[in-house]
Design goal:
globular; 7 strands; seven-stranded parallel beta sheet; 31% helix; single chain; Rossmann fold
């Protein structure tokens, strides 16, 4: 007989905490399309612009500095802010569609015992993103949205978000 899901049986059980992280633009749009998967969770959203607040209201939205690999000090500031957020929120799961904010969230989350899921951007048609390649090591679930980019060692293909 299967073990019952105690979270459903006990109305006082804590809901799963999800930290949903993405940079702006297409990464953010793809993350928003995953909202139905978070229906039974307490979600804290993280992105690079406060302008996205209305997309997720009334759920909490935290912002991080936008940084690229060309700005090492910016990346350090981003990594420290993500670390502070993960420590503050204490998520059960980190889910990201990339890029740099998602990589750091997977890294810090995994080091702190969170489950992590990386979904590489739909825009990466020919090859995985640099963040996506690096995130594979820190992700419990490592996905690509292009079947031809999947491999035995990862990432896996399970369909596209778009």
């Amino acid at each position: 007989m299967p073990t019952p899901d105690l979270r459903q049986a006990d109305p006082l059980a804590r809901r799963r905490r999800v930290l949903a992280v993405a940079s702006g633009g297409g990464h953010w749009v793809q993350l928003l399309r995953l909202r139905p998967a978070f229906a039974d969770a307490d979600v804290t959203w993280v992105t690079v612009s406060d302008a996205y607040r209305s997309d997720v209201a009334p759920a909490p939205l935290l912002t991080v500095p936008d940084a690229t690999r060309w700005n090492r000090i910016g990346l350090l500031r981003l990594a420290l802010r993500i670390a502070w957020i993960v420590l503050k929120v204490r998520p059960d799961v980190v889910v990201t569609t990339g890029a740099a904010p998602g990589f750091f969230a997977c890294l810090v989350g995994r080091l702190l015992g969170c489950r992590t899921a990386w979904i590489d951007s739909m825009a990466n048609v020919r090859e995985l993103s640099m963040s996506g390649r690096a995130a594979g090591r820190w992700s419990d679930l490592w996905l690509t949205q292009w079947e031809r980019l999947s491999g035995d060692q990862g990432p896996q293909y399970r369909g596209a978000v778009l």
